[in-house]
Amino acid sequence: ADLKSFIEDMPKAELHLHIEGTLEPELLFALAQRNNVKLAYDSVDALRAAYDFSDLQSFLDLYYAGAAVLQTEQDFYEMTAAYIARSRADNVRHSEIFFDPQTHTERGIGIDVVFAGIARALREARDTHGFSSGMIMSFLRHLSEDDAFATLEAALPLRETYSDLWIGIGLDSAERGNPPEKFARVFARCRELGFHLVAHAGEEGPPQYVVDALDVLHVERIDHGVRSEEDPALMQRLAQQRTPLTVCPLSNLKLCVVDDMRKHNLARLLHAGLAVTVNSDDPAYFGGYMNANFLAVAEALRLSRTELVMLARNGFEASFLPAAEKQRLL
Ligand code: HPA
Ligand code: ZN
């Protein structure tokens, strides 16, 4: 088989995906019209043309503006259903999905509306197609820890209702200047509550943020983590503990974390023994879903088929699925 078919045929698990980052311009415009939300762009093409980012913040500004079109349970359902359709087409069998309630509750949308719409699509996909998934509620790190606590308190009454899906807690948004320590107390509480914990670290922020995500927040996986390479002791530790990194190649290119895919350190991280996985992050904004991310690194870094299989298998191994489920799905 050619490289593209080989990648298409591999069963994949996705561990770093922001559901709000799957809102394609076409759906974004349709929802804006349906909900009478005024957009700063007058066409799908004009919006897509604005997806030219210089760093994380330049992306976040558009991402949060785009999310304003999401108003009803049906809107969250349609966005999630569209993501699942794309993922199934890419032979993704399991996905652990981030969602940012604060982006929506800030606009007066009920947190129950957010949970309900996403969960309805995930349950339907599970019951109809055997598509496996989990939900990871993420705190916005540019907001205060008190705000994160308030979000947790608002969400906890829903825990029983979504016990089949809600598996974890994450931390995303603007990394620089918002270190893990800012969320130490709320993560300690989430840990007591028995949630799986993850955090974005070492995307734009320094390797010390990766160390602190591990030592202060006690996360089980690092989202991105590519800057870990700057700290040899950290690299040794990540390899030894097999702490997964959820790497997002097209995201790193679009947000100028790397200026050329041929310079991406994914292969070096893998060769150093780290549990590297490949993920799409915000595929509607960064130019591709899972297969596009695999193909981009396979070509730019001349990865072997053995390496591609390792990366895909790491996705299942690094997932929060029970061991028997990992085996069954891959
Ligand atoms: N980094 C931080 N916050 C985010 C990202 C990301 O890549 N995507 C969506 N929110
Ligand atoms: Zn991310």
UniProtKB/TrEMBL annotation:
GO molecular function annotation: hydrolase activity
Annotated binding of substrate, by residue: D282
Catalytic activity: adenine + H2O + H(+) = hypoxanthine + NH4(+)
Site label Important for catalytic activity, positions: H224
Domain Adenosine deaminase, residue spans: 11-330
Cofactor note (record): Binds 1 zinc ion per subunit.
Domain of life from the UniProt record: Bacteria
Keyword line: Hydrolase, Metal-binding, Nucleotide metabolism, Zinc
Cofactor: Zn(2+)
InterPro entries from the UniProt entry: A_deaminase_dom, ADE, Ado/ade_deaminase, Metal_Hydrolase
Keyword Ribonucleoprotein: no
Chain positions recorded as Zn(2+) binding sites: H16, H18, H200, D281
Record: active site: E203 (proton donor)
E.C. code: 3.5.4.2
Enzyme class (EC, first level): hydrolase
Family recorded in the similarity comment: Belongs to the metallo-dependent hydrolases superfamily. Adenosine and AMP deaminases family. Adenine deaminase type 2 subfamily.
PANTHER family linked: ADENINE DEAMINASE
Function text: Catalyzes the hydrolytic deamination of adenine to hypoxanthine. Plays an important role in the purine salvage pathway and in nitrogen catabolism.
Protein name: Adenine deaminase
Native organism: Paraherbaspirillum soli
